[in-house]
Amino acid sequence: MLLVNDVKWVETLSFRFGVLGALIADRYAQALAEHGLKLKHVGLLGALDTAPGASQLEIAKLMRVAPSLVVSLADHLEAAGAIERLRDPADRRRQVLSLTDRGRDLLARCTARALALDAELTEGLTPAQRAALTAAFDRLAAAHGLPVRERPVREQPDADPR
Amino acid sequence: MLLVNDVKWVETLSFRFGVLGALIADRYAQALAEHGLKLKHVGLLGALDTAPGASQLEIAKLMRVAPSLVVSLADHLEAAGAIERLRDPADRRRQVLSLTDRGRDLLARCTARALALDAELTEGLTPAQRAALTAAFDRLAAAHGLPVRERPVREQPDADPR
DNA sequence: TCCAAATCATTCATGGCCAGAACGGTTTGG
DNA sequence: CCAAACCGTTCTGGCCATGAATGATTTGGA
């Protein structure tokens, strides 16, 4: 049994993050299929929710994806009536995207489905473990430039930072 | 801002697991490139470390991957001198794989590299948070059938299970 | 003992997903 | 007023991985 610093390769956080991420994404994608959506479709809806009225290029940057991919994603979502495409009158090159009511509803359903999966994933974890997970994910998300909501600090509201 | 149960979609564990998993895997893959390896190559080395002397089919099941993929991965690793392929004399259909010294060395390097990334990822977390995080990942890995080492229990060594 | 079915590894064709190049329409700034 | 930059779109190509088809070997009855 090969050990480096007392840990095996398969016990490495880097390895597990990749594998579990793919596994969980797969499970979620399967659940999404019944809405006729792929993961990135919901990604676009979500991006549009945090950046309302964004252009396709802005969405592409937010999603870290080629602009050409946004085209096909938006095509599908538009055909499904989830988003609206509007030429910006001030700059007729830009396509401004916005969620329709149906799109918002869809996103809400997908969010609910994700929360259900979240609950299943964290079932059996202690409260401390759950807290550590969300804390770590918040940190990582912020460190990687993903959208993060500032959570209200509940502890000492202002420990002297000396 | 669309909220379901007070959380946005992008704050969902399911979403973040997928995205961060892919992001981290990407970073690690980049580090691996200097060894001329892809992620799954190291995956094979790691699988072979936890299941020494396994056949290709067993490795495929362990890695949750098509047997045909193991062929090309093993081809590459064998050419690199990291593994040995041996026909099982007792059943000449089976190809028994085993790590060479060079393979073990390679795996050790990759593990060390992963640990360095791990440290960077968890930097800023308190020791308690790190412990809770690894515990949570242990649970998730176990729940998904990934190899997990039983860690020595340090608390009450034998609470009466009545 | 013998043969049909099962098993393992391998090759090959195929598909999904995505980035990058090429193009037309539009805006900007000198 | 025109060249350069910019945005969206189409289309081609690459990478990765699966599944089907093949050949070699083993196994479990009849």
TrEMBL record, chains A, B:
Taxon lineage: Bacteria, Bacillati, Actinomycetota, Actinomycetes, Kitasatosporales
Top-rank taxon, per record: Bacteria
Name this polypeptide is given: HTH marR-type domain-containing protein
An annotated Gene Ontology molecular function: DNA-binding transcription factor activity
GO biological process: response to stress
InterPro entries: HTH_MarR-typ, MarR/SlyA-like, WH-like_DNA-bd_sf, WH_DNA-bd_sf
Domain HTH marR-type: 1-142
PROSITE patterns: HTH_MARR_2
